[in-house]
Amino acid sequence: MVMPHRGAPGQNFMTETYTTGLLHRAQKTVRGTTSLSVCVFKNLNRALASLGIVSIVACLLSVGCSNSDSKAGNVRAAMNQAVPVSTTQVRQQDMPVYLVGLGSVTPLNAVSIKSRVDGQLVQVAFKEGQHVKKGQLLAVIDPRPFEVQLSQAQAALFRDQALLRDARLNYQRFKGLLQESGAMSQQQVDTQASLVNQYEGTVRNDQAQIENAKLQLTYCHITSPIEGRIGLRLVDPGNIVHASDANPMLVVTQLQPITVIFTLPEDQLPKVAKRMRNGALPVEAYSRDNQTKLDTGKLLTIDNEIDQTTGTGRLKAQFNNSDGELWPNQFVNVRLLLETMKNSLVIPAAAVQRGPQGMYVYVVKPDKTVDVRPVTVAISQNNLTSVASGLSPNDTVVTDGQDKLHAGSTVETRPAGPPNGQAPGAGSSGQRQGAGSPAS
Fold first, then answer.
1. From CA 167, how far away is CA 171, in angstroms rounded?
2. How does pLDDT run across 289-302, given as a tens digit for each residue?
3. Least CB-packed of 161, 265, 287, 304 within 10 Å?
4. pTM confidence score
5. Strand 83-89 relative to strand 411-415, pairing
């Protein structure tokens, strides 16, 4: 048998036929395998999806149970946790009752110095802002014109006195002749007597002119009528001043003592008048910002009428002003001590809360729990409150942190700072309202 030669057409045909068969079988095998794989993958995906859903549900249930347990634990922990608060003890002490008003400083005496004569200002014997005594020299007006007037008046007096002496001598002669020999008539004697009286009047007028000239010389030397402080100089040396000038040369104001005029509501005036019958009432003056105490004085009087437009009455108090803290026209806050409540139960005003049932405080018991205690407030001022009922001495009350408390709460106490009992700006009867009400 003759084999086909390599490269012959028959051999190539057989080879291609064999190869083609192998390819068909391989494709069938691949198609079958692919179908199986797709089926397997589909079943596997369904299983995984079912398993994922189950896992997610299990996780959600686990998280929900965990959150519920956590919230319940937090609530229990919050209920058992101690609330930090500030506390203080109820004190038994005297409680001053003040009436607060607004006022302005008014000097007892303020003098505008003017010239009482016309002339040139030749000397200024003071410095601006100087404190002067009563009778101290302040200024000098040119005295020379008035010295001349004095000399003229003195000369006229000397002349008229001589004429008066001559008239008196003649009167004595005429009167003697009439009585001895009748050489003079009664008419001549009476005329001479009248002349003597005229000269006596002229002499008295001359003496008055001299006194007037001396007074004008005195007016040339201007002195202080009161003790006080000089303000700014309003006229310079060398200027001509007149008695009719509208503006003064300077102003002298008395600063020690000094007064303050302030107002109070008309409803408070009867109480003040009643207390004044027992003696002078102390008065304190504070600065505009209510932070600095300027001086302490006493109440002088109450005005005799009430201002209908404001419904207030005016009162005047006097202060020594030894430190010079008060100045005329200065605005001040005034505190009038009306009375002192003896042995009052006093707590900080921050401890008092207001609720639907009225005012109350949180009282700390020995077991570190709080109790809601209703109280009756007598008066509240200067950041302090006087309690009429509801508390006992040495009770411990909460002054800060009440917003987190309710009856039976456990607290962790820390001492509160001392109450600012010296703040002058507090009202005389203001009561602090709390932020919350007692929990049931």
1. 6
2. 989 999 999 999 99
3. 304
4. 0.64
5. parallel
